[in-house]
Amino acid sequence: MKRINTFLFFAFCFSVLSYGQYKLPALPYKYNALEPYIDSTTMRIHHDLHHATYVSNLNKLLEKHPELYKKDVLELIQNLDQLPVDLQTGVRNNGGGVWNHSFFWTIMAPAGTAPMSAKMQKMLVDNFGSVDAFKAEFEKAALNRFGSGWVWLIKDSTGKLSVISTPNQDNSLMSISKVKGTPVLTLDVWEHAYYLKYQNKRAAYAKAFWNVVNWSEVERLATK
Ligand code: MN
195 CA to middle of ligand 1, Å? Predict the structure, then answer.
């Protein structure tokens, strides 16, 4: 018991000392929650290793500028051009990696638990002509993204929804982004996101993704 208390005491001290540094958020569901569409091993590696590495790289990058730990990741990536020059590329890649993955987990849910409402359906019809036309455009953008990147459904300042894709860990919130908008849905199309289960078949992964979209969350973001 004493050893456990000692351990907890040091764990507490460590967590206080590391205050202000970025943490890996927990997945909002179990690793196997998105099976069979996204497999448990991929989720475990993607969250515990890939996402975790972006978090630790970002922490390491800011060691020389610890005052920046006070800012949240969104604030860092929204103001990339105001950061010290030696940090801009690193924060773009690793801060982007942290934010994009944290967001990605929240717009997915176990199949059948967060279906598309009539209201969400109408928003897609109004913006794309039909739900199928929206899905086709999104899947096409996933397939056409050469190399690594992300596909997004974003909302602009007038409320209009559109599909875009970004390279690497860029997103439409970044100060350096050509297209600006609020992300409401995204798909990670880096090979690490699908290779174990889908190998080179990115199109099959993009199609399977529709089964695990958290439409309640997408609607909340699209109507905010
Ligand atoms: Mn990823």
Answer: 11
CATH number of the domain residue 185 falls in: 3.55.40.20
Query: β-strands 182-188, 161-167: how paired?
Result: unpaired
Ligand 1 center from residue 51 Cα (angstroms): 7
Gap from CA of 168 to ligand 1 centroid (Å):
10
Distance 105 CA to ligand 1 centre (A): 10
CA angle 88, 92, 94 (to 5 degrees): 115
The mean pLDDT value for 56-69 works out to: 94
CATH number at residue 95: 1.10.287.990
Provide the number of structural domains found in the chain: 2
Record the pTM: 0.91
d(CA 5, CA 119): 52
Residue 84 domain boundaries: 6-20+38-106
Please give the Cα distance from 26 to 48 (Å, whole number): 9
DSSP 185: E
Rounded to the nearest angstrom, the distance between the alpha carbon of 189 and the centre of ligand 1 is 7
Q: Say how many Å lie between the CA of residue 4 and the centre of ligand 1.
A: 36
Pair (67, 162) in one structural domain: no
Low-confidence winner among 9-13, 75-79, 189-193 (lowest mean pLDDT): 9-13
